[in-house]
Amino acid sequence: MLYAQKLHKQFNKLTKLKIHHYCITDRPDELPKFVTAIKPYKKSNGWWNKINLFNPEIPRGNVLYLDLDVVILNNFDEEIQFMQKREELMCCVSDAIEWMGVKFSSSLMFFKSGVHSKIFENFVKNESLINNREGGDQVWTGPQLSSICYMDEYFPNLKKNFKFHLAKREGKKYTVPMIIDEKIKLIDFGGKTKPHQFEKLPYIKKNWHLI
Known about the structure:
Elements: H1 2-14, E1 21-24, E2 35-38, E3 62-66, E4 70-72, H2 77-85, E5 90-92, E6 108-112, H3 117-130, H4 136-141, E7 148-150, E8 159-161, H5 162-166, E9 168-170, E10 173-175, E11 186-188, H6 202-208
Parallel strand pairs: 1-2, 5-7, 8-11
Antiparallel strand pairs: 3-6, 4-11, 5-6, 9-10
């Protein structure tokens, strides 16, 4: 829950937009007071819990979702307002490595609540067959989306993957940058790399230690 607290507080600190904060969790007492807890509609394993976002009972309106291991560096209100005007049914950022041939990434999603209810219903009906599927939620969900806006095609600095975009790889070793482009808005720590492992880096220390 520490990650959820940091994410909500940093977003709240930087945005100038009027946004209702929600968190799907079974530990509501650990959330900041300005965040409304939503009990999971369907408890699953790991990343499959994201499918709850597509439940038709989710609060009405636009939904902006961020993975808990995303670190917010700068205000991205401009990008949010851009997504609000799009006609596509899903806005996201391309997966850094197009894992298993799927471009869609579920680390950042923007969509209208209720429009993807068939994905939720499909998962509930077939969870036993899907739950251990290789590639996880985004590899399963991506092919079911017929209308996607890839935000990195319009805003290349909106979100960068720490491991694949920012670090330099030499064999199995990674060289971590001490300084990054100040225009980057979000850093995605997807995979085994997590923010707490790099909390001494200047840009992480500045933007992630908010409790």
